[in-house]
Automatic annotation (TrEMBL):
Highest taxon of source: Bacteria
Domain FeoB-type G: 8-171
InterPro entries hit by this protein: Fe2_transport_prot_B_C, FeoB_GTPase, G_FEOB_dom, Gate_dom, GTP-bd, P-loop_NTPase
Membrane among keywords: yes
Segments crossing the lipid bilayer: 282-301, 345-364, 384-402, 422-440, 452-471, 507-528, 548-566, 587-607, 619-638
GO molecular function, one term: ferrous iron transmembrane transporter activity
The protein's name: Ferrous iron transport protein B
One Gene Ontology CC term in the entry: plasma membrane
One Pfam family it belongs to: FeoB_N
Keywords: Membrane, Transmembrane, Transmembrane helix
Amino acid sequence: MSTSAAKPTQAVLLGLPNSGKSTLFTRLTGRYVAVANAPLTTLELERAPLLVTDDPYEIVDAPGFTDLFASLSRGEAVREALAAPGQIIAILCLDANRFKQSLSLLLEVQTLGLPMVVALNMVEEANNRGLTIDAPGLADRLGVPVVEQRGGADDVSLLAQALPQARPARPEGLDHGAALGAALEIVAASLPVDCPYPGAAARHVLLGGAVADFFPAGPAPSDNSPALAAAAAARALPGDALSLLTNGANQWIDATCRLLVQQRSRHDRDILQLVARMSRSLVFGPPILISILYVTFILVVDGANAIAELLNARVWNPIHAYLSGVLPQGFWTDFLIGDYGVLSMGLANALLTVLPILSVFYLVFNTLEDMGYLPNLSVLTRRILGRLGLGGSAIMPLVLGFGCKTMATLTARTIASKRERFITIFLIAFAIPCAGQMGLNMSIIGRMGLSAFFISSLALVVVELAAGYLLNRFLSHTEEAEGFILELPPIRIPQPKAVLRKTVHRLYLFLDESLGVFILAALSLFTLDRLGILQGLKTVLGPVLEKFLGLPASMLDAVILLLARHEAAAALIIELIRKGQLDYRQSIIAVTLTTMFIPCFANVMAMTKVLGARSSMTIFFAVNLAALASCSVLNLLLQWYGQA
């Protein structure tokens, strides 16, 4: 296959959600991208040059999809990948565990006419389940190279070496009938001459789609000839076009599976899938979730906090003592190691307080993520979310919010209903703590005991449900909620190396994004303090914090830091607890407030991208007002309980 010296051939990774595309992308390019045993992990296109050979290819990781034509109308990233200028080949990732569904997707992708190479993923897992797939036989039946991916270095090299042999698939034995073939030819002849992928476009239009879906880069043609041709061709068919296409595809898939798939007998009670069923059960699911939270709480409080305190005692305290002895009293001491010092509040808080806590929490969270627990948790929560007027497509974004609120907000683009999309994004921004926030909350509130963590968590759940109920009650119901459809990945035993690598990657991202923010935040507070502005704010706003929230004026520092980074505010709250400036009740209020108050900048930008500036600002101000009101009520309840 010829390649262009000016622009490398683009090899686009296509496949079902959670079919191993991102893992393969990392192995082909050496560039790490987020990998998880959950759908909707990849949202945007990732591009990097092929590294395992010297051939000039650019590997493109596209989001997973289950239906090519639905993706062409809704999936901007997939559409962008297929419409890119230059030579394009497809690396189709077939999931050996979902072989029939993968073959169905393959039949749709092959209508694009792109040169194709098939990567057969999840082979070892399928073998462990008693499934064996004849890869050479599949290559013969498709007429394209098929390379098994078992995780070894040789596998990815063989896949890279197969790219020059990519060619359009010609599925042996696939027959939709002469009448349907003639109808597709009629529609194809009516398409604009510059229509990309005419074979796929003809099929799409015959099924009622629009030609405009195939013109993402420029203005779509206004000629309605294809639609008229499709209507005429459909009337001449001996049946419904979709049924004819589906029947022909199913017959070919069934025949292919009979020829190429062997199923060995195995025990029906697979322990991992039993765990999956139990985690979704209304009987066993809640106790499993509570147990996971309790174990995580113990690891963070007794493990991460101990590490953080040890580092502060063994690393920072000696440095602080040394600098106190050599620095002159006054400006430089305050600037470097004072209450708002760039070393004390900036570097030490980030590296010695927050980083150890996030390290332990991310190890636990990444383990659960790679197991595939989060999608099963989505099933467990669907009944509650249904009461809030949310359909199936809103469930996964909300659960993903416990990992990263920004990514979860971007994932909410997949929700068709504008009303549901607004409610979902509001709830993500409001009282759902992201992974980092949750780990730090456990560390902060864990210093006050398990009961404090329970009260804070219960308060967040109550206000989140109340907000969802009110939004569902008062927003106009102009669209029906979507049904609950979620393909569950299998529960897997996490690979320690993969979990560790993801943890290191997330910690690197935290330091890359936050270390400068910690230092800048310290500089800002130092400057405000030296100018007397900070003390003036405490004089004015301190009584308000005390009266309505029951918090000391020193908490104003943490509230200001929320504007920069929630982790910076959390580190300051930990320091206030160390100094004895926050008691049991105040610690609960502080954690609850900082979880809800002032969504992070990245999440606000994501809201703006999905909803627009007006709606995102509405959510921003509503979330902050609701956070202040909720914490005021919580303070009154805790005061009443303490007096009772």
